[in-house]
Design brief:
Pfam families: Pentapeptide. Keywords: Signal. With 163 residues, the protein is mostly helical.
Length: 163
């Protein structure tokens, strides 16, 4: 390899490396609603993958049919929220108050749900396959589990490992 070929090779490498950050910036940052007041907001049918809702007040919000895969809801208030048919696969829903909420036909596969309160929730047809829950939560949810998820075909009781 002569000097001219070496210079051309090095220039090509430099241009390639320089272009990499520009390619990475083609992806928008995740939406952040952390610490927001979202009472009564309508997010139905929206694509909100990896959106952040940590410490948000989402009382009476509507997420029906929303794509919430990988979303973060840590320590949020989700009282009387409609999550019917929402996809929460890989979502982090830890330390959340889901009081009076509708999780019917929701997909919660491999979601983290530790220390979440499930008082008076509708879980008919919800799929909790491989979700992270503690024994007390599983016992509470199994007491009201019924139905089959329309998207995954998995029975709610089976997804929770109910006996």
């Amino acid at each position: 390899m002569n000097l001219r070929q070496l210079a051309a090779f090095l220039l090509a490498i430099i241009l390639l490396i320089w272009a990499l950050p520009a390619q990475a910036s083609d992806y928008p940052p995740p939406l952040s609603f952390s610490n927001a007041e979202l009472k009564g907001r309508d997010f139905s049918g929206q694509t909100l993958e990896v959106a952040e809702f940590s410490n948000a007040n989402m009382e009476l919000a509507n997420f029906e049919g929303a794509d919430l895969r990988g979303a973060i809801f840590s320590a949020s208030v989700m009282t009387n929220v409609n999550l019917h048919g929402a996809d929460l696969t890989h979502a982090m829903v830890d330390q959340v108050k889901l009081i009076g909420s509708d999780l019917s036909d929701a997909v919660l596969v491999e979601s983290i749900l530790l220390r979440t309160i499930f008082d008076d929730v509708n879980i008919t047809g919800a799929d909790f396959s491989d979700a992270i829950l503690n024994r007390a939560q599983i016992k509470e949810l199994c007491a009201k589990a019924s139905g089959v998820n329309s998207k995954t075909g998995v029975a709610t009781r089976d997804s929770l490992g109910c006996r």
